[in-house]
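Can't attach files on this board, so I'm pasting raw text. These are the components:
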Amino acid sequence: MREALRLIVVAVGGQGNLLASRVLGEAAVAAGMPVRMSEIHGMAQRGGVVESSVLFGDVHSTIISDGEADVLVGFEPSETLRALKKCNSGSVVITNLGEWPPFTVAIGRGTYPDIGASLQTVRGRVRRLIAIDGTALAIRAGNAMALNMVMLGALSQARCLPFGDDLVRRTIEEKTKPAFREVNLRAFDLGYDAARDAST
Amino acid sequence: MHKLLTDSPGERMLMLGNEAIARGALEAGLAFGAAYPGTPSSEISENLFRISRETDLYFEFSTNEKIALEITAGAAVSGLRSMAVMKHVGINVAADALMTLAYVGVHGGLVILTADDPYMFSSQNEQDNRYYAKLSGLPMLEPSSGNEAKEMVKYGFDLSEELQEPVLFRTTTRINHSSDVVVLGEMRDRKVQGDFRKNPFRYVTVPAVSRNLHKLLLENYDKALALAETSPWNRVEGDGPWGIVCNGVCFSYVQDAVTDLNIQDRVRVLRLGFSHPLPERRIQEFIRGCEKVLIVEEGEPYLEEGVKAVAQEAGFTVPLRGKGAETLLSRLFEYDPAMVRRAVARYFGCGDKAVRPVETSDIPEIPQRPPNLCAGCPHRATFYSIRKVLGDDAVYPTDIGCYTLGMLPPLSMADFLICMGSSVGTAAGFSRATGKKVVSFIGDSTFFHSGLPGLVNAVHHNHNFTLVILDNGTTAMTGHQPHPGVDAELLGLAEYTRVDLESVVRGLGVRHVTVVEPLKLKKSQEAIRQAVDFEGVSVIISRELCPLYARTLPSYRKRRLFRVVPEKCKDHRACVNDLGCPAFYLEKGRVQINENVCVGCAVCAQVCPENAIVPLKSV
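---
Top answer:
Structure tokens for the assembled complex are below.
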């Protein structure tokens, strides 16, 4: 497949989306497919929003304009909502439902939205919306930090990558730290199954 | 072995642009490098620093960019391939050295990397450093992708040696922080032994010498121009009556726009990668035969001015447009693919692709998620204590580092900032001009970078303010690089000499110097009271390791975490409202502490009026 596929990942700093994007990039390299990525992570360790884009196929840009993402993966539901402007009616949206309200909410400067109602509002406006409790699944897999692998599992199940889920799985095996490999793969599988259940 | 040392030519590797640049320098046989860290350039120097630990490459984090350039100039004049790495505003600091080094020249290749930051993702301005090439007369290279950056850096060293002068290598954030597939090349052997041959009439820039050197610089300009005219880095793609001139990352947006608008048979694109001196003949040939020309570049109209001047000289009347109402291209901020596509479609009058973002106006507003000082950050404790003592009446100039985040509520401890080191100089100005209490903040690394001269000046002129040096033992904001005050023993680096901050400050003649442990609020506030009451310059060194950094050290010991005792908590919320630590969250309207975020700094426990915050029983 040479046709361009534009994928955007949004997360809160510390949720591990750069590693998730890296796995997708490495999988593309292994598949011999052109890939370009971009990340904004200057404040990643300080609780800000981290956004990365992965562009597969015949495209030169490394960033994605508003309305032009084919796939949006959100590691935190309010961040998914914030990034929805990147999507159009043909986009697939995969989101974690585990909430991580910004500290501005705790100090009374902003209200955290009703996630369920908001997702219901936008559900019909994209091609598919897959919502899973990735945070709970990561903890079930053995480590809350494995949320990124849960989300990769869900993304692979949704069949919106230009390569098979076996390649993503293999890349996780090869490119993530050996100490976390088992947890990572378990998290990947849990995300995969959850996305299947969420789609039926 | 560091992955950038992989010696297997032809291998394809996914790399960050900054890694590709470091790799290119290594393939070119880089022997000597120096940097002051700064986003978006930091990964270049971080990787080269790590590689210097396992090879004979010399690499240092210098105290500032001027020194980084001077030390690499010394090495390059002695024949070593050298590189100075900095963010765009770093060139301002190094500019004094740069302007006259351009006269003197080098023998070994010297590449000066400037990483510009359109949109200011992590910078105080978005100055366009292409004008430094014009100002200094030095050649400039600008890559359009990471893979190209690797090859272009290698060429940069060759070009520098051919012209015997430094070469400016300009990137933007999207080159530094984008990844693509890079093909590894051969590693050239490093020449690490330099040789300086005395020649004062070439190297000592007294007026009589410099008058000759300026002539030489202009002759070199002509040589560089001739090279730029035929350089493969300046290339034309496609053929058609519509011309587009572009540089850097915009080239990819232009390529995608031409494909998406399906106008491949109508457009020719001139990509300028060797962009100073501007290849005038090349541009002239390109414009000849165009019906219309569009110039696409982020930042200032550098190419636009050049292209228009060339056209004027050649007597062309073809329409040329860059920024402005006709194209909607701006001098502000970063461009993106849709913006460039719209400009191309508008200007040449072809239909743009219709894209409609998802309608979101009917979902509730998403609360902002600004970056915040980390849980347990000692800066938060320092800011809290100073606000307790002085409230909002004092003026609080600040500086560049994590502590700039103290600007946001609830701390609100930043009133003025322009550049690295400015906290010290501006403090004296505010104090003299207003007669108000002034307390200014500077980090340890920033103090060594450019705080010292300001403090000497303040002592000499008997200015009246308190300087708080936030000494967290590292250069935290850019990823924990070492600086002269760092305890290198903590890092297992025996060969560095630690410059003791307190002795330096006392040595400069500051008469009131206190070192405080900021996590102990009561004692700190007492010391702050005394310091601000002192007439003259007083310095508080607020010393506590950055918790993110401390965690990476062998000496790290976990502290006891804290919890809220619900029976004692009377919901004053002093903790949340005055500290704003990210470890707090509200559950059913009551404050809780997230154990996964808390690092046990115990500051909130000292703030709570009901003593309702207590240590967890076990770690």
